[in-house]
Each structure stands twice: as C-alpha cells, then as structure tokens.
C-alpha cells in the first residue's frame, strides 16, 4: 500500500463531513482507523456569523475527544487554523444566512485536514458548500 499523505487525509475529512448518521460516522471511523487515519465528526448550525467561533471550538473539542489530536497547543492550533481556512472558503455563500451541516476532521501522522459541509438556507432555496483546510504538525 502506498504511504498516506495529505490527499488521503483530506478525502477522509470530506467523507466524514458527508456522513448521514452517527452510525455511518462510527462505521467510517473504524474503516479509516484500520488504515491509520484517525477521524472525528460533529454537527453545527445557526446563523453563519454567530456560528463561526462555535464551529472552530466544536472542531477542536471533537478532535481532542476522539483522540485525533493531543491536548497540546500546536495540535489545537492546527485544527483551529484548518477549520478557519475551511470556513473562509464558503463565507461568500453563507454570509448573513442560516447554515447547518457537519465538520469532518482527519489526521494521519503530521497531516490534519478539516472539512466543513454547509447547507445554506434562505426560505426554501437551499445551497450547499464544502470548505477544506489542511495543516501539517509534528506527529
């Protein structure tokens, strides 16, 4: 098997963000763990502007809770930074609107990726968007 890099970790984060249920999350988490990729996922929602800090906090807390990162400043900062990058990619679609969706986090050795899936709502006209951020930290 080829070594795992940022592409495979990013794919895992995106797939975690697109899971439909907790059961599907758990199944996918086990599949990825067998390949050496640690993963986590957490829901988010609310007014976009008011939710940005909560999304970043939820990402860091979920990553620590699921053992994706250690409780050290560098790991927490990497997840927060990757989450902020992912959010910035969807900002123009979501600004001023309500959002809901899921955050997917994945790590293999020094690669950490965070994917944020957004359902952006305005009346009955829903839009979807995915943002992706990556950071490298020492493992």
Describe the structure.
With 139 residues, the protein is of the alpha+beta class. The chain has a single domain (6-136), classed as Hut operon positive regulatory protein HutP, CATH 3.40.1510. The chain is 47% helix and 30% strand. It is built from 4 helices and 4 strands. It has a 4-stranded antiparallel beta sheet, sandwiched between helices. Helix 3 (48-65) packs antiparallel against helix 4 (73-94). The longest helix has 22 residues, at 73-94. The chain is globular and about 45 Å long. The protein starts with 5 loop residues before the first helix and ends with a strand.
Q: What is the compact description of this entry?
A:
The protein is of the alpha+beta class and 139 residues long. 47% of the residues lie in helices and 30% in strands.
**What count of helical segments does DSSP give?**
4
Percent helix: 40-55%
Supply the number of structural domains: 1
Written as H for each helix and E for each strand, in order along the chain, the element string is HHEHHEEE
CATH C-level label? Alpha Beta
Give me the side-by-side strand order of the main sheet: 1-2-3-4
Proper CATH architecture: 3-Layer(aba) Sandwich
Which fold name fills CATH's third level, the topology? Hut operon positive regulatory protein HutP
Work out the oligomeric state of the chains in this entry.
single chain
- Uncertain ranges: none
What gross morphology would you assign? globular
Percentage beta strand? 25-35%
Calculate Rg over CA atoms: 14 Å
Q: What is the tally of beta strands?
A: 4
CATH-level-4 superfamily name: Hut operon regulatory protein HutP
The chain-level structural class is: alpha+beta
Calculate the terminal CA-CA distance, rounded to whole Å.
21 Å
| Biggest sheet details | 4 strands, antiparallel
InterPro entries: Regulatory_HutP (IPR015111), Regulatory_HutP_sf (IPR036482)
Pfam family, one: HutP
Family: Belongs to the HutP family.
Protein name: Hut operon positive regulatory protein
């Amino acid at each position: 098997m080829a070594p795992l890099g940022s592409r495979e970790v990013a794919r895992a984060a995106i797939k975690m963000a697109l899971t439909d249920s907790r059961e599907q999350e758990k199944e996918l988490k086990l599949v990825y763990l067998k390949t050496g990729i640690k993963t986590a996922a957490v829901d988010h929602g609310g007014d976009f502007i008011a939710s940005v800090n909560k999304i970043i906090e939820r990402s860091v807390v979920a990553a620590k809770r699921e053992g994706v990162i250690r409780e050290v400043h560098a790991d927490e900062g990497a997840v927060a930074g990757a989450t902020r990058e992912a959010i910035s990619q969807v900002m123009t679609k979501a600004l001023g609107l309500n959002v809901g969706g899921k955050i997917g986090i994945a790590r293999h050795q020094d690669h950490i990726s965070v994917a944020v899936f957004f359902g952006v709502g305005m009346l009955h006209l829903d839009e979807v968007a995915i943002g992706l951020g990556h950071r490298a930290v020492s493992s």
